[in-house]
Design goal:
single chain; 94 residues; alpha+beta; Alpha-Beta Plaits; 4-stranded antiparallel sheet; 3 helices; 4 strands; elongated; DUF3303; DUF3303 domain-containing protein
Length: 94
């Protein structure tokens, strides 16, 4: 399953706090970089989103929980729409 995981720093949290947590989890081998399909920050800082791929929602929760005191998560299941295939599909629907 693919997940759109929007994040925003919790009130009072500094970028340094988030960087420290990410490194801490990485050094413990808990970040699962093979499951990260994209990681984006919004201009201005303090927010962004990740695209994560997991087998199930429980696995996703295990990945996000260690960050809940430094970032607020807004999570949605997503799926890809290959553009050319969708155009063909739409043409057949007319």
């Amino acid at each position: 399953m693919m997940w759109y995981c929007r994040f925003r720093y919790q009130p009072g949290v500094r970028a340094e706090d988030v960087r420290h947590r990410v490194l801490e989890q990485h050094d413990k081998g808990l970040t699962h970089p093979e499951k990260i399909r994209g990681w984006y920050n919004l201009a201005g800082g303090g927010a962004g989103f990740m695209l994560l791929e997991t087998e199930n929602p429980q696995e996703l929760t295990e990945m996000l929980e260690p960050y809940m005191d430094v970032v607020n998560w807004d999570v949605h299941a997503v799926y890809e729409l290959p553009y050319e295939q969708m155009i063909d599909h739409f043409r057949r629907q007319r």
